[in-house]
C-alpha cells in the first residue's frame, strides 16, 4: 500500500461490511433486508464526539453547504450586516465572503501574521453590530488553531454569533462545542472522520436555532405532515398541514442522505472513540515536531506555527505541484500539493519510517 500522509485509513473489515450491507439492502438482496440504516445513531455518535446533544446535529451535504445555510438563515447578505472572517479560513470560503461583500454585507478580513490570526486583531475587528464571526477552528492551510472560547467570548460580548468550520479538527484534536460556547459548527466526513464525500454534519446550539430564518424546507425535517389532495385524504383548507421538528434536523434537513457514508461512519466513529481523540492527537506530536525541525533544514520554510499541536505541517515551495507531484507519485507517497505550498498531515497509521520515506523523496529544496 502507498504511504498516505493525510487521511485516516479504512478501519477493520467491519467498516467495509457495513457499506456492503447497506448496498445489498438497496439492491433488495433478501439476505440483507434485516439491515437498518443507523441514521439517528450516527448523529448521536458525532454529537458525543464534539460534546453536543443529538438534537443540535443535522446531516448536510458538505461543510460549505452548512456555512451557506447559516448565512442565509441569518439574513445575510440581504440584511447588510457586519461579518468578520480571516485569511486562514478555508480557501473555498474566501470567494463566499467576497460575494457577501459584493451583495451588500460589510465584511472585515483579519489577515494572518506569521501563520497566526492574532486574537487582538480579531478583537479590533469585532464591533457592536457585528452579526457573525466565521472561521476555521483549525486552518486547512497551515494547521493554525484558534482559541475558540476566547473568540466566542469576544464575539458574544458584542452580540455577535460564531460559526466554526471544524473539518480539520473533529476526529484529530479534541472539540468541545459546549465548553467553547460556539453557536454553529460544521464539517464534512471525508477527512479525519474516515467517511466519504457527500455527507457532513452541522451543529447549531439549541438556544440559537430560533434565530435562524427558515430557508430550507426539506421533508426530512418534518414532524407532522397531512395532505388534503390525494384519494381518501381528510378534508382540509390547505393543500397540506405540516410542522417541523424543533431540532437542528428540522432547521437544516433537506431530503435523502448518502446512506453508504452513514454506514461507514457507524463504524468509524466507534473506532475514533475507542482510540480517543486525545490519543490520536498525542500520537501525531513526535511526527509533526520532527517535520517542523527537519523540513526547514532541507530548505522548506514553515507556514505552520511552531507551537501548533494540530497534525498539519505546511511549507512554502514555489510551483510545489509541478516540482513534487511526479516524484511523490513514483514513490507512492501522497501528501497535499498546492500551487506554492505543500501540506503533510500524519495520522494514527503513520510512524517515523513513513517520515523517512517522505523526507527521502522531498530531498532538499
Q: The biggest beta sheet, please?
A: 7 strands, mixed
What is the N-to-C order of secondary-structure elements (H for helix, E for strand)? EHHEHEHEHEHEHEEEEHHHEHEEEH
Number of strands: 14
Shape: globular
Number of helices: 12
Order of strands across the main sheet: 2-8-7-6-5-3-4
Gap between N and C termini, in Å?
Answer: 27 Å
Query: What does the radius of gyration come to?
Result: 22 Å
- Helix coverage percent of residues? 25-40%
Q: What percentage of amino acids are in beta strands?
A: 15-25%
Overall average pLDDT: 92
Low-confidence stretches: 6-13
Helix-strand makeup class: alpha/beta
Supply database-style keywords.
3-stranded antiparallel sheet; single chain; alpha/beta; 365 residues; 7-stranded mixed sheet
Q: Would you give an account of this structure?
A:
- The two termini are 27 Å apart.
- The protein contains 12 helices and 14 strands.
- Strand 3 (82-86), helix 4 and strand 4 form a beta-alpha-beta unit.
- Helices cover 36% and strands 17% of the residues.
- The chain has helices at 13-26, 39-50, 63-73, 94-102, 119-125, 148-157, 177-180, 248-252, 259-275, 277-297, 320-330, 352-362; strands at 3-4, 57-60, 82-86, 106-110, 130-136, 161-165, 184-188, 200-204, 222-227, 240-244, 313-316, 333-334, 336-337, 341-344.
- The chain is globular, with a radius of gyration of 22 Å.
- It has a 7-stranded mixed beta sheet with strand order 2-8-7-6-5-3-4, with helices on both faces. Strands 11-14-13 form a 3-stranded antiparallel beta sheet.
- With 365 residues, the chain is an alpha/beta fold.
